[in-house]
Structure formats: structure tokens, C-alpha cells
Amino acid sequence: MAGIFDEGLERNPANFAALSPVSFVERSAEIYGDLPAMIHGARRYDWATLRDRSARLAAALRAMGVERGGTVSTMLANTPEMIEAHYAVPALGAVINALNTRLDAGLLALQMNHCEASVLLTDREFSSVVAEALRILEADYGRTLRVVDVCDSEYTGPGDRLGADEYEALLAAHPPLAVLEGPPDEWDAIAVSYTSGTTGAPKGVVTSHRGAYLNAVSNVVTWAMPNFSVYLWTLPMFHCSGWCFPWTMALLGGTHVCLRKVEAAAILGAIRDHKADHYCGAPIVHTLLINADPALREGIDHRVKGMVAAASPSAAMIEGMARLGFDITHVYGLTEVYGPASVCVKRPSWEKEPLAEQVRLNGRQGVRYPLQEGMTVMDPDTMAETPADGETMGEIMFRGNITMKGYLKDRAATESAFRGGWFHSGDLAAMEPDRYVKIKDRSKDIIISGGENISSIEIEDALFRHPAIAACAVVAMPDPKWGETPLAFIELAPGADVTAEDVIAHCRKHLAGFKIPRAVRFEEIPKTATGKIQKHLLRKRAQSTAAIG
Length: 549
What we know:
- This protein is α/β, with parallel strands linked by helices and 549 residues long.
- It has three domains: 47-208, Rossmann fold; 273-442, ANL, N-terminal domain (Rossmann fold), CATH 3.40.50.12780; 452-544, 2-Layer Sandwich (GMP Synthetase, Chain A, domain 3), CATH 3.30.300.30.
- The chain contains 17 helices and 26 strands.
- The strands form six sheets. A nine-stranded mixed sheet has the order 2-1-11-10-12-13-14-15-16, with helices on both faces. Strands 4-3-5-6-7 form a five-stranded parallel sheet. The chain has a four-stranded antiparallel sheet with strand order 17-18-20-21.
- The termini are far apart.
- Belongs to the ATP-dependent AMP-binding enzyme family.
């Protein structure tokens, strides 16, 4: 029923606009047009130029028939073209499908078919696998795409052109759109990002303009990012739309510093030369910097902030980053919540704690992002919140503005994920008395040994306390007596010399006897392109071969 505060007070163009992060691009071009927006090798663009290039790409895609609700796939490295696609495609009301550059041809074809892509922007570096994916796409699904080749100025390796269009020529041939603007409805899809598929088939996670806008703002608030920040692209942009940082940097009028390859020399060189002050990455990226030749860090004399996700920061990482003078923030999330949706907010009092306690406090998944409405731990069966005692396990759940629309063409999976009015993460955790959440395990990663539940993450936390261990993962190993026992896969830091017996002795200091790994294997741990450990592959190793003690 309308009241006095409704009558004659309707929405109109003067007082209401649908939220879309595309608006950030127009604002920075208008206000900061002469300021640096992009650095990539020898290339330099200011915000006026970056906006112009994005608007030309949008015009070219429109001429190809891309419109509201259409899909444009990208097979691109962290280059200017990838950022321009994140500005241009949503400006048409179309949906960007950023493909994981490490996928095989079959999966690429499956995803492009599933999201009904009509155009593909692809870097020459990936032409071999893309050519096969296009062949499969036509042979198995009867679908052909308009292919645009990106010939990046910083790539000098092999790779054929696959399409009739070349990116730079395409931009030159199309005048820019007059305005980059989002769709009339902020609930429109902005991206479809496929889950990593570490278990089962990957699902297409659909996110909205509203959610992307709000998470881009949340990034600023969470990290206290100032205007004109310089952001280094160590995080793959295909991962959850780069955690919404393409739009965050547009909001700030900051500078994107692009990197094709994540290598210590390139990262530290970019931080030094371009005064990059923020970057994101999985633990492997931070470990790479800690273990780098100290000479590579010479000349870095400014404050650098790193964001870490995918695993809790270990004592070695916290100490190592402190030695570098880098400030690390631990975040947690999933593709379904736009990347990071919770943060372990560091309180000033924590700095006075001993290192071991700082590690424990900073290793938690923390509290909800500023613009996420809800995050808690619940019993997934009763949907009752677990007590904040640090012990009672339940499932981490989210709800609010930075939660996905749902899974593309999968109503059953969407309804299951949202049952009870919350998004079910699948991560098992306990809520501590200060309401900071600590993950205990993925539901599928619990090891049941002799009827006792063992958290693989608890064992991994103990392993990471050993200074020689650079990476580790624990999975269940079949056991004739106990059913399952823990098996630890370990990667050692460069120059380290540690035996399995040493590792097990170390674990005895930190774990109950039944939780200690029964076997240790020193070998490379498989990871996704974003640094996430592929435990399903380790489980196969544990099942198919005898563990080496």
C-alpha cells in the first residue's frame, strides 16, 4: 500500500540508475582522462585512451551482432585486451566468458557451447589448443564462432592466426561508442565463470552487474585502497573476473600493470619500476617472492599490499612477507561469491601477539565483506547457526548482494546451492567467539580414520609450520585396518633437505597421534591456473599407487 513517502516520489532518470561497474570507466575517463590507466611492456594508455579503445571494441562487437544477453568468450592472458573486454562486453549488456587458459580443448569447447558464445577473442599464444577447441565445437556441437585474434605486442612466441579479424585492425575500423553504459536492469548477467571442476563437471556461475559493482566497491573498502592505486596483475583475470579488480581500478582511476607470466623477476621488477602497491594471488605467488633472489628486491622502497586466498597464510609466509616489508591480507571466497567475500580483518592488537598467535589469528577466513549481507556457519541439515565456540563444525554460508545469480542452465544445482535461503559453500568451519570463521575442511576432504573425523586442513596447518615446507596437501589413503589414513604430499623450499621421518616427527609436536600422516611423499603438487591445489588428482594418486613412507 502506497504511503505519503511513495506518492509523487517515483523513480526517474534524475534519481535512480541501475548499478553497473561500466559507469566507473566513464567516470575515470571524464575526470582522470590524462592520468595513467595501463602499463604493459612498452605500451602506455591513459584513462581517455583506455576508454576509447574499450568503446571501439564495444562498437566492433555490436557490428558483429553482439547484443544484450549475448556471450563473448575470451582466451586471453593478463593483457590490455582482457581489461578492455571487461569494459566493452558489459557495456553492450552482453556477458563475458573468460576462459581458463590452462584448460584442454574439450573443456574449452564444452564451455563455449554451454554459454552459447558467438564471438571469441583469443591470444596467438593459445592458438594450438583453441584451434582444436573450435574444431570440436563445430564437430560435436554444430557451433561456429566469430574469432578475433589478439597479437599482443609483448608476445614473440609461436602461434597462428585463427580468425578473419585482428584485434587492433578491428578497433581502428570502428568509431567508439558515444557512451559506455550498463544495461537497464542491474540484475542482468555480467559474466559467466566456470568452476574449476576439481570434482565433477564445471558449472557456469552467473554473476550480475549489481554484484560486480558492489564487490568492486567492497575491494576498495576492505583494502583501504586510495585513489590512483597501482595494481599488478598477478591474479589471472579469467578467475572470477579477476575478483572484480578490473572494475575496482576503474573506480579508483588507478593504473593496471599487466603481466603475461607470473615469474619472480617480472613481478618484483614491475613493483620496483612502476611502484605497484597492490597485487593478489594464491600462496604459491607469495612463496615465489619470498624464495626469490634477494637481489631482485633491490630498489623496492615503498609499501606493498598483497592479498592471499586459496589457503591460509602459514607462519613461513607471514614471516617471509614481513621481511620483504609486504603487508598481507587474507581473504576467502568462491567463484559463486565473485571471488573474495570474506576477509580476516587484522585488528591493531594482533600486532602485539607472539608470531604463533598472529599466524593463528591471520589464518582464519574471517568475517563477511563490507557489502555482503550475511556470512555464518550453520548445520546444513537443520539450518541452525552453530555456537561461536571455535569447535562446533558446520558449513560456511553466505547471502546478500555479492552472491551469484545461480548456475547457468542448472535449476536443480541452483536450488540446492540456495536451499534455506543461504548459499551453501561446501566448506566446513567453526565460528570462534569473536565470530571470525575458521575453515576446518571441505566436506569432501574430511578423512575418516577408524571412525574418527580428521581435518586435512588441520594437518596442513601443522605441516606449514615447518620452515622447509613450501607447499603441502593432505588426502585420504586407503588403509586395511583404519579404512583411511592421512597421506601428505609435500613440496620443499629451494635447498631444503628433509626426510619423511623428519616431517612425521615435526607433526608429533603439533597433532594428536591419530592425525599424524602415516606416509609422506615428496613430489610436485598439481594446481589449477589460480594456484588452487587439485586434490582430486592427489586422491587418484593415493588410490592407484602405494604411498612411499
